[in-house]
Design brief:
197 residues, Arc Repressor Mutant, subunit A
Length: 197
């Protein structure tokens, strides 16, 4: 039986930059608790996997920025982060479902606003430009996933990565890098603002 990694060893590993050795015990010890919450609140196993992946990224970021002070156990913090991520996903899904209903009701009643189409195209081109700046493998993975609508399994077969989890880990790191690029790109931020006001 593999011994449990202590909270102290997990935190010190992250602070030392030894992320690869920290991720495995995090999955082994805590993925089940986050998955149980997601599944008990209407999610699938795939949802649970995605939420835990985002949870790990958020947790590592929190520790690296010195915002984890050890006032709670790692497990408690991970479950809390996972709960918030899943709650946001549920809200997003409800919002998208509602927008879909409005769109269906409004179809044929008015013509599409040309400025919206132009804004979407401009944002789409800007994101493509930012993704290109990330270089490979991020450019390949994000293009296959978001623009070609490929599943993680298909990406594994097309890119030769070891398995879906490796691709999932890489995608989240790439998304984090992309978010940083967007934050530092006033033009992209303005286009996003115009699209969602």
């Amino acid at each position: 039986m593999v011994p449990q990694a202590s909270d102290e060893s997990i935190i010190s590993g992250i602070l030392a930059g030894d992320i690869d050795h920290v991720v495995r015990p995090l999955y082994r010890q805590y993925a089940g608790a986050v998955a149980a919450h997601v599944i008990n609140h209407g999610g699938s196993q795939q949802d649970a996997d995605d939420v835990f992946q985002e949870t790990i990224v958020a947790f590592i970021d929190l520790v690296q920025k010195g915002r984890f002070r050890g006032e709670a156990q790692v497990k408690t913090l991970l479950v809390g982060i996972g709960r918030n991520i899943w709650l946001n996903e549920i809200k997003k899904k409800k919002s998208l479902d509602h927008r879909g209903e409005i769109f269906e009701k409004g179809k044929g009643l008015e013509e599409a606003d040309g400025s919206d189409i132009l804004q979407q195209r401009a944002l789409h081109q800007r994101f493509r430009h930012l993704i290109a700046q990330l270089g490979d493998p991020c450019r390949t993975i994000l293009t296959l996933f978001y623009y070609d609508n490929k599943s993680f399994r298909e990406i594994v077969s097309e890119t030769g990565y070891e398995n879906e989890q490796v691709v999932r880990n890489r995608k989240y790191k790439c998304m984090k890098d992309l978010a940083d690029l967007i934050q530092n790109d006033p033009e992209a931020m303005e286009q996003v603002r115009l699209m969602y006001i």
